[in-house]
Amino acid sequence: PLRKRCCLLVYKGTSSVCVATVGFLLFLGLSLFYLPDPSAPEPAVSEESSHVTLLLIWAHPFERYRKLPNCSALFQIHKCTLTDDRRAYPQADAVIIHHRDVAIGRAELPTEPRPGAQKWIWMNYESPTHTPALWLFEGVFNLTLSYRTDSDIFLPYGYLIPRVGTAKSLQNRYAHPLHKPSRSNVIRPRFVAWVISNWSESHARVAFYYKLRRYINVDVFGRAGLPLPEGRGSVVRLLGRYQFYLALENSQHTDYITEKLWNAVKAGAVPVVLGPPRKNYERFLPPEAFIHVDDFPTVRGLARYLRMLRRNPDRLRRHLEWREGYSLHQTAFWAEHYCTACRAVRRTRGKTDWFTW
Ligand SMILES: *[C@@H]1O[C@H](CO)[C@@H](O)[C@H](O)[C@H]1NC(C)=O
Ligand SMILES: *[C@@H]1O[C@H](CO)[C@@H](O)[C@H](O)[C@H]1NC(C)=O
Ligand SMILES: *[C@@H]1O[C@H](CO)[C@@H](O)[C@H](O)[C@H]1NC(C)=O
């Protein structure tokens, strides 16, 4: 078997002697987008095996307890048992460890030596800017689970599923069909919204907002602005009244595209994005599905474009027509992460490390 050390420093995005597992691009119908593991064909052999994989959740992320999911019922991932009972450590096939909690000392790593074939999975959904003390864990983990396409177990915040020519299995319960607006519904009552919970003057997104508001009105929601409506799905409902949504990431890194973007997509507001470069977004969305702040040499140019679109429904529709062919899948934190990890462990059982794709 091929031995490949799990390399966390690659996560920093700097040059490194280790070679990360190359993200796999799935050609599905006309889609050139990155789709996570669920779309990969199931190898028949592993499913036949009667062994039940036991995955230990070492600590609930951010110390917030959540009931563990039934992977079979929710994701059709069978023969996976999840537990958060640490007494199961000696029997666990794998242990999933959330980076932030061990990095800031909220939880300790399990004690060594680890049981023979057990795999430790490093799970992280923050960007490198907000991922402290990475160096502590170099050479400790066997598999990485993150939103980065070069993780061993890749699960983004969300992804599009093409509706035509797609296997039934992909039309799962978390897939939300998207539609283009009817002719009379292209123009929405409100203009631009931004939801911001962590306001920091050091963030590029705040500097961008200061410039943008010189030219257009932005309705700001969250701690620093208007109160956010409460309750499940209420943010998406709010965005549903807006034409544009500022999907501005807290820091700019490869593949770091969060629920901010997908909430806008779900609500049918055209996302104005600040994050990794346009090319990176285009691995996840059609080029016309979003407006990138780098598309314009100046913020003033961008503001002018947004105002122009609002007066030209036909032009605006170009940013919305693509929706007709897709469903949106937003990943369920953390249920889906645990189940996806468990399946990955099943598939790599008996192997020292991940096989190349
Ligand atoms: C999980 O769901 C499956 C299918 O719905 C069911 O047969 C099984 O009993 C459930 N397992 C547990 C532990 O609840
Ligand atoms: C908010 O942003 C600051 C500055 O980047 C960062 O240090 C802090 O960890 C962030 N807080 C949260 C809750 O993300
Ligand atoms: C997991 O990684 C540790 C540390 O590098 C290593 O000692 C162990 O053999 C690996 N286990 C498996 C099953 O690959």
UniProtKB/TrEMBL annotation:
The reply to whether Flavoprotein figures as a keyword in the UniProt entry is no
Please give the pathway this protein is involved in.
Answer: Protein modification; protein glycosylation
Q: Which PANTHER family match?
A: ALPHA- 1,3 -FUCOSYLTRANSFERASE, ALPHA-(1,3)-FUCOSYLTRANSFERASE 4
**GO molecular function terms attached to this record:** 4-galactosyl-N-acetylglucosaminide 3-alpha-L-fucosyltransferase activity; peptide-O-fucosyltransferase activity
Q: Per its database record, what is this protein's job? A: Protein O-fucosyltransferase that specifically catalyzes O-fucosylation of serine or threonine residues in EMI domains of target proteins. Attaches fucose through an O-glycosidic linkage. O-fucosylation of EMI domain-containing proteins may be required for facilitating protein folding and secretion.
Q: Where in the cell is it found?
A: Endoplasmic reticulum membrane; Golgi apparatus membrane; Golgi apparatus, Golgi stack membrane
Q: Name one GO biological process term.
A: inflammatory response
Report the GO terms under cellular component: endoplasmic reticulum membrane; Golgi cisterna membrane; Golgi membrane
Q: Any idea where the Fucosyltransferase N-terminal domain is?
A: 53-158
Indicate the secretion signal residues.
none
Please write the reaction equations for the catalytic activity of this protein: an alpha-Neu5Ac-(2->3)-beta-D-Gal-(1->4)-beta-D-GlcNAc6S derivative + GDP-beta-L-fucose = an alpha-Neu5Ac-(2->3)-beta-D-Gal-(1->4)-[alpha-L-Fuc-(1->3)]-beta-D-GlcNAc6S derivative + GDP + H(+); an N-acetyl-alpha-neuraminyl-(2->3)-beta-D-galactosyl-(1->4)-N-acetyl-beta-D-glucosaminyl derivative + GDP-beta-L-fucose = an alpha-Neu5Ac-(2->3)-beta-D-Gal-(1->4)-[alpha-L-Fuc-(1->3)]-beta-D-GlcNAc derivative + GDP + H(+); a beta-D-galactosyl-(1->4)-N-acetyl-beta-D-glucosaminyl derivative + GDP-beta-L-fucose = a beta-D-galactosyl-(1->4)-[alpha-L-fucosyl-(1->3)]-N-acetyl-beta-D-glucosaminyl derivative + GDP + H(+); L-threonyl-[protein] + GDP-beta-L-fucose = 3-O-(alpha-L-fucosyl)-L-threonyl-[protein] + GDP + H(+)
Query: Matching InterPro entries, A to Z?
Result: Glyco_tran_10_C, Glyco_tran_10_N, Glyco_trans_10, GT10-like_C_sf
Q: Where are the transmembrane segments?
A: 9-35
Please name the Pfam families in this protein's record.
Answer: Glyco_tran_10_N (PF17039), Glyco_transf_10 (PF00852)
Report whether Glycoprotein shows up as a keyword of the record: yes
Swiss-Prot/TrEMBL keywords: Endoplasmic reticulum, Glycoprotein, Glycosyltransferase, Golgi apparatus, Inflammatory response, Membrane, Signal-anchor, Transferase, Transmembrane, Transmembrane helix
Report the enzyme's class at the first EC level: transferase
Q: What does the sequence similarity comment in the record state about its family?
A: Belongs to the glycosyltransferase 10 family.
Q: Where is the Fucosyltransferase C-terminal domain?
A: 189-350
Topology class, membrane: Single-pass type II membrane protein
Q: What is its EC number?
A: 2.4.1.-
The name of this protein is: Fucosyltransferase
